[in-house]
Amino acid sequence: MALVLAGAAPLAAQTTPTLRQAAAARGIPIGAAASDGEYGPSNDWLANPQYASVLSTQYDMLEPDNAMKWDVTQPTIDTYNFVPGDTLVAFAQKYGMLVRGHNLCWYQQLPGWLVPSSGTGGYASTASEAQMSTLLQNHITAEVTHFAGQVFAWDVVNEAFSDSTPTTLRDSIWYNKPGIGASTGNGAATDTGYIEQAFRWAHAADPNALLFYNDYSIEGPGPKFTAVLNMVTDFVSRGVPINGVGFEMHLELGGYPSPAGLAQNMQQLAALGIQVHITEMDVRLQLSNGTATQAQLTQQVQIYQNIMTVCLQQPNCTAFQVWGVSYNDSWIPSAFPGYGAALPFDFNYQPTQAFTALLTALQTPESAPVLKTTGVVNSAGYQGGAVAPGEILAIFGVGYGYGPADPVNYQLDANGMFPTSLGGVQVFFDGVPAPLSYAQAGQVNAVVPFEVAGKQQTVIAYRYYYNGGPAPGPLPGLSINSNAVTMPVVAAVPAIFALNASGSGPGAIENWPDYSINSASNPVGANGYIQIFGTGGGTVVGGAADGALAPGAAWLSASPTWPTATIGGLPATVTYAGSAPGLVNGVLQVNLQIPQGLTPGPQPVVITIGSAQSQPGITVAVK
Fold first, then answer.
1. Matching CATH topology for 25-362 and 373-488?
2. I need a labelling partner for 268 at 20 to 30 A (CA). Which of 205, 438, 475, 562 fits?
């Protein structure tokens, strides 16, 4: 199983990369809003092969345009409809995409039983504050619980602030008509209590999801951003579970923020430990006979390139998303008659000059390497957000322009250890250099030092030596350091390697006792045994040396409970879970006995360690 030593496969070289490939090389997800027929056949865009192809190949993240909004998810007060959202989640999982949830609390697109389109009658017209509070809590709890583990980030509250000066909270059924009866009354963030409650309810339903406040006209300095900043500052000071702010970025020529102003706003949120996602970007143009002039397109190109460049330069800007896949499904023509041409793909699903602008920004090296938490992921399952002792990581993006031009694979040193410097690259965890297995500009694979065990968090940094390795003596001019990022440390983040290194599909699994690769042509039978290889299992009994090959079997010690597993949804007996003898410490080996009663063919396999599960989509062939 040599595959597991290298971990995630290097990005394939492409003469014309997709946005998805270029963004992955910079360690940032790039996404688009998507629709799947939640309002009927007229917006069943996934049924269009061209739409589906662009969405799945150009983007590695999607956000339901409407499928997770309240008017879709709760058609009556007593029933829920998550089918449209489930469809988009299934599409995302099929193509290895992240899903942002949008949105849980908004003053618009409410179901008719709650607020009729006429504006009169409905539940909200006679409900008490206590009843409204219960209603909102039940809605948030039901939806977030349903999508827990499938949606990595939620827009919890959307567009709560007004456009007035001074900025106040917008009139809404949640704030004051009738409201939900929750107010902080703390001056700087007066009456944001209902927003706070929404975040607390969402966190209780899925503690692992990132929670965002989302709004427009906050990307540049001004009273509205100041009001949002004051609220976030208050929330952070009191431990309200908020992780980020979404900048919608619905822009037009002459109306976009300066790059300096955008960077300033991001930096003020970064000082609070808050992430920023560009959530709904488009740049609308006023058309003449349905056509934009080249002068307009040139200005649009500069806006797209500026915004992406600023996002890449700011470590807390951790996702970038446009609002629609092509001109066909853009909301702009209906919302702004006479405007259009707002997105990176046109009516024929061909790249526009906006596409080229984004690609250019993604392919332009920065003045220094930028490390982003979103670029630090498990090398087997590509999940992120936290690291575990001994976990083999793939770190994307930080070395773009600051790493070896050609791939450099590990070679064991004279002591049989993995190197801590490879092709001039080093990665540090709390100042401890990590063993490396692969390095190239745009990607490095590192093994988290076991010394992080027991810590709440670890500080990660990246260094590149232009002379190919740490210089003998003080030669600071030959190296350059990235920023440092802090990530939570957890006991285990189990993931299973895929044979094709994609994170899904047939797993890196051997049939026992002949150690042959499990495959459709070489399935395992009921009551047979398999050996599964992954990473993220955590520490082992007796400890393990960083960068050394495991000398023998050693059971996991980090798990608070005995590891468990299922195959095809049926419990599978775990006969061993621990280090993989002969492979680098940090590779996880789990031996299972196949349960009876499985349907022949590929069956999903899931490993659970404590409360953490391996990624979905890994299969084992059974007969």
1. no
2. 205
538: left (phi over 0), alpha (psi -120 to 50) or beta: left
Catalytic option among 143, 248, 280, 510 = 280
159 as an active site residue: the answer is yes
The Cα–Cα gap between 303 and 253 comes to 8
Q: Which helix (H) or strand (E) holds 619?
A: strand 618-622
Mean pLDDT of 42-65: 94
Answer whether residue 474 shows pLDDT above 80.
no
- Does residue 219 have an active-site annotation? no
How large a percentage of the chain has pLDDT more than 90?
Answer: 83
Residue 474's CB: how many other CB atoms inside 10 A? Answer: 7
Q: What is the pTM of this model?
A: 0.84
Instruction: Provide the CB-side half-sphere exposure for 226 (13 A, CA).
Output: 9
Q: Assess contact for 465 and 433: CB atoms under 8 A.
A: no
Q: Which of 38, 63, 143, 159 is catalytic?
A: 159
If one looks up domain 495-622 in CATH, what number appears?
2.60.40
Closest CA to 533 of 583, 594, 468: 583
The structural domains of the chain, with segments of one domain joined by +, span 25-362, 373-488, 495-622
**CB proximity list for 187: less than 8 A, separation 6 or greater:** none
Which CATH code is given to the segment(s) 25-362? 3.20.20.80
